[in-house]
Amino acid sequence: MSSQESTRAYLPSLEANPRLGDWLRFRREGFVEMYSGKVEIGQGVLTALTQIVASGLEIPFDRVHAIAASTERSPDEGVTSGSLSIQHSGAALRQVSYEAKSIYLLAAAQHLKVPVDAVTIQDGCFRAAKQQVSYWELADDELLNRTVAGAGAPFTNEGTFAERIDLPDKIFGLPRFIHDLAMPGMLHGRILRPPTASATLESCDDQKVLACDGVVAVLRDGGLIGVLTVTERQVDLALTVLRRCAIWRSVDETLPDEDQLDDWLRSRSIDSKVVSTRAPNESENSRSPVRTLKASFSKPFLAHASIAPSCALSLFQEDKLEVWTHSQSIYNLRKDLSLALRMTADSIVVRHVEGAGCYGHNPADDVAFDAAWLARSVPGRVVRVRWTRADELTWAPFSPAMAIDLEADVDEHGSVLEWRHTVWSNGHSTRPGRSDSPALLGSWYLDPPFERQAAINVALSAGGGADRNAVPSYDFRAWNVINNRLLDMPIRTSAMRALGALGNIFAVEQFMEELAEAAGADPVEYRLRHTTDVRARGVILEAIERSEWNHDLPEGWGRGVAFARYKNTGAYCAAVAEIEALENIKVRRLTLVVDVGIAISGDGVVNQIEGGAIQAASWVLKEALRFDRQRVTNEDWESYPILKFTEVPSIDVHIVSSTASSLGAGECSVGPTAAAIANAVSNALGVRIRRMPITPDRIVAAFDQI
């Protein structure tokens, strides 16, 4: 294998984008521009990537300018997802910076007429024999107009503290989000959604709408209908009138029975696959099972529930389309816009602007289509579309519901010999750019409509979907993991933070607790009994020590522990939860220990672990999509409650010191936190709740079954 081939196998982002100049550009003004295909969505990734480049080039942090991703200039790194930004983009930029420094070092030596080994670097200046020349004086795009040469750039001092470059504007309320973006002559648009997903538009008398103040146009293509106005207040009023004028034909009872969701999941048409299996070898067959234990678990459909609804802007002029979006996949979005609008991809530029934060496939891509479709009717005018709260909570892609059956054959000591894990769920991805039909809500209502694709699961080798973390993280001698993907998708599903790992770890780590109880074993000792992975044992033991596991709790309190290695290949995380069980369950304290390899930005890692833990607490205690047989019914925070600031627990995060390769942190705390809370509830109350969310009604029902 050649050096370049080994580099591209080692660094996947460089395989797709091997040209050094696609990543860095030195400017004579005294700074270097950094281009990444990964986008800032509140995880602090641009700060960490800036640290990597500054370290690799041996220049001050403030001389690196992170350029927002766009299809016009940035490398195509696919989707910002899966906690892979540091692993992929960070590794690529480390290699690119290392090679760029070597190239400029040689250029400096030639300029100074000295040997390369006589040159030192300080503050972007190359110095030798009382002479110096800087990156900025030597700046020449042609120097980086070459492909990456090799792999193996060293880690240096990247883990030093650096202030987040995105936070000052957010803290002081300065314009930074896409919602703050305003342009001269901008129009405001809204799309009228049907009363149910299956409804068809029969007629619409738009004359009353056109008579409203500020209305510029009412647009219709098939069942897609929208309005443009001069101000945002006017567009809200016009949409209200438009809703009264539209006549729809609906189909009854296309959604499942919410109260029978687990049965519905198990009864649908499925694509069933054995995703992982291991048979015991001859030396392991000496012990025979003496008992089989079984349990079933489930999670509901979940909404992204972003605090700020999705927003996009678009401008169409001279047969070119520009789109400003907070999408996590700008190149994939460009592909689907090209399909839906029947334009060439080269005629579309997609620019990323920060949104208010979302980990997964929320409506950012859908609202981008809305803005682009409306903008084509008013060439030369920028169109801004912001979804309403009701749109966001009823029309977004949702995290799929999951039903999970677990079985374990144990020996005379209660130790697991063989493990069986079966999942029923819709696929966990309908992201744009992965099909011949656009994955954009509005495109499904055009005339003719584009086909709605059923959600897929990416291959387990690429992180998986419903089967993520279904493969055991423990040293069982045998296992069999089956994933049943539902082919019916009456409720639109796609990726949400951690994908299937939330449901699978919630189930696995509760079942491990039940197995420990059946064996009469301490739950910590039982987990340690089943793993020889030094890093796994390390985070578990550290979490136990830091949480003061054996200290007495007040009456009505409970404590629980859980562990997982995210995706079986990512970061290690152990969580200990302390809860108070009164009229409601309140999480009082969370202790989380993570091993993410080299932590590029320690503050950023802590931020991500805390955020994942808080979101997991909200999911496991409060959240569930509500729907009747026709439509999703949660339209506000009353019908879809999320964790409040007053309910956030005390959180202690410890990062294990490591010299191993960096691993993503954004999603690894989700599953262990949810499972630890569930185990703490069982510890406090003596009953186990196997369905999310853990609500007072479910606790009462569990007591009734004792």
UniProtKB/TrEMBL annotation:
Residue stretches making up the Aldehyde oxidase/xanthine dehydrogenase a/b hammerhead domain: 172-243
InterPro entries, alphabetized: Ald_Oxase/Xan_DH_a/b, AldOxase/xan_DH_MoCoBD1, AldOxase/xan_DH_MoCoBD2, AldOxase/xan_DH_Mopterin-bd_sf, N-heterocyclic_Hydroxylase, OxRdtase_Mopterin-bd_su_IorB
GO molecular function, one term: oxidoreductase activity
Keyword Oxidoreductase attributed: yes
Tagged with keyword Oxidoreductase: yes
Alphabetic keyword roster: Oxidoreductase
Organism domain of life: Bacteria
EC number, UniProt record: 1.17.2.1
Pfam families in the cross-refs: MoCoBD_1 (PF02738), MoCoBD_2 (PF20256)
SUPFAM superfamilies registered for this protein in UniProt: Molybdenum cofactor-binding domain
Protein name: Nicotinate dehydrogenase subunit B
